[in-house]
């Protein structure tokens, strides 16, 4: 385990870095790297660990094993050294969902609710937009798996969780950076993880400041940085951190109620190479902590399930249920697991869709209907019409570019970027495609690539006001 439960890579200055059995060239993740490696290497059937801000979920994702972080306070932490008592939990890892569930039977109180009725998956679309992993390996796998189950699940729904947070956690506003309407949800997600980290620093300082200042322990660079941030933490507005925590738990309970399960990515990307001098980028950390803060700050339970590999590294997905719904969530994972494994295999063999006969006149009519819907701000309807036009004629760059604009309005940035990619393959001088792809990339904090797109647009139209303003704005971000 990383020193003081603070690391996220699994590297340890004193004991060395455990080898990741699922991908030996990369770090195993932390802080509970030993537990994850032991389970992944089949040395044990399950392992326990602490999870404060992702300490079990991160290595579970990197090592390709199942993980369960219980609701805060449901499993006793008596006998452990606290990191942050408002966030600390005792969780567990396993390779087999039946083992994961049986450990839950042993540790969870009888009051931790079991099956409550037909479950409904709620996909956090804006979180998946932040990934560079195609939806067919994540969202589609889960949706297709649930469709094959004969009973027990309602049709899934999709939401922008960032916008939901922004609208339902009023005290979070003081932690949000100024943002456009389009980026409001992204700002709320970042603010949520900021509150989580500030709360952790405040409570760690209260618990360990005297010891750190007296002993002056020799710590690894990553851990030392986090410990110093905590010990040097000063903030007079501590009360607001606890208010946000309370509001967020209530808001998530209201969203999920008794039968909802939020679906979101576990991690933002692939782990670092072993023994690399490179450090985690601020962009990677922002996304990673945004994902883990959803359960950590609300105190809700979360299960992490591996989804095979992407680019030769394990990937996973997570499920979050309301506080106290631990056995309900474990049962849902057990019911879905076999179907998920079947869909992972099918996704890896996914063939390209067949070519559809073209009908130019009809496709143009559908495009016009899409344009009319767009003007009326009926974004989803516009997407349906543009998609129909593309099915009939997939060589028209305008159709893709128009659909990208509608995706942007819905905050579905990954789909917008993909449509702009296709538009530019068909028409390399499509200025709107560069502008919209740049907007999509900027919205997921990919500032360098966004700047390149806006500069491409300026090369084609030197006086384009949108591109000029974006260039100026992004240069400030990249300083």
Automatic annotation (TrEMBL):
Residues 1-96, 211-330 form the Amidase domain. TPR repeats lie at residues 363-396, 397-430, 431-464. The keyword Transmembrane helix does not apply. This is Amidase domain-containing protein. InterPro entries: Amidase_dom (IPR023631), AS_sf (IPR036928), TPR-like_helical_dom_sf (IPR011990), TPR_rpt (IPR019734). SUPFAM superfamilies: Amidase signature (AS) enzymes (SSF75304), TPR-like (SSF48452). Keywords: TPR repeat.
